[in-house]
Amino acid sequence: MKKESEKYAIGLMSGTSVDGIDAVLISIENKAIDTKYKQIGFITLPYTKSEKDKLLKLASGNVGGSKELLKINIYLGKKFSEAAIALCKQCSISKHEIDFIGTSGHTFYHLPTKTKYLGKEISGTMQLGEPSFLNEEFNCPVVSDFRIRDMAAGGQGAPLVPYTEYILFRSSTKNIALQNIGGIANITILPKNCSQNDVIAFDTGPGNMVIDNLVNIFSKGKLSYDKDAQIAKKGKLNQNLLNYLLDDDYLTQDIPKSTGREKYSKEYVNNIIEFATQNNISLVDMIYTVTFFTAKTIGIGIKNFSKVDLDTIIIGGGGSHNSVILDSLKTLLPNIEVITFEDLGLNSDSKEAVAFAILANETLNGISNNLTTVTGAKHPVIMGKISY
User: Fold this and answer.
1) pTM of the predicted model, to two decimals?
2) In the chain, N or C: fewer CB atoms in 10 Å?
3) How many domains does the chain have?
4) Domain containing 335: what range?
């Protein structure tokens, strides 16, 4: 039974790894830096192979049209609603008890830097997954499409999770970093006693996306990821391939910065395969080296952009289950404590879904929920479109 001061909120997340829809139920109290939450339940509603193939194809930016995007927007809206309903059933909580929902939608294209279009310079982002189906099913406010409001104020619309990490994890005694390793990897650096303006956050580069794509190709679609790093652990580092991967202008690009599937795309993966083939690099060595590369980019990001010596880095997201990434980070960052969310009694997989529930709580309370030092926006804004 929840207290009078508590609300039940659902957070929904569909990430660039295209594994499925993460759905979390939390009880939440207060707002801003006084926010407190407790996780009640969490599920992932997996995407079928045909769904995943369709999402990846449309997110490439090279196919589809208005009719196709309309269909996938409606389809995903219903799928997000299914995930939320399944979550309530798992938690034995009536859908009528839910006070609000925050949903990320699924990112189909992210264009953070300005480009010429019809004579104007534009930047933008597109998240789909029609929220009206959640309104209809749950009869509560739904907050969606967060990123574009920040971009209208001159920001990159990403990363967004650092705001919630500032609320929940800042410390008076330690310099802490939170590293999410989803399809894309992103870091938040919280100097001890930090204010919002002291937070540094950015996408460090590819997380699981490239590894997953390579594994999928070489297993002929039988595997969607390298479970427990079983393939990578059979290989060893190939320095030539690592040097090739490190020749990446994104790694030295100044902050604020964000990236996504539009950069680390099918073409990017095909180039890796071509390089490995020409240099007689085995499959297992290629997978190991690409996995190590994810850890290496995190180390580069910390070296280039952290203004403090970190005490602890907390790893979350799917990559937190990859022992090669974790072991590589411990080797590359010998003076920093490397732990996972599970070490804190939390859930690595639900982290981003929780963040969107908390971001929605801020929206509904009329509180600015972007970090301008992180996204590059000209001023604070209240992100998220509210539907009833």
Assistant:
1) 0.90
2) N
3) 2
4) 162-344
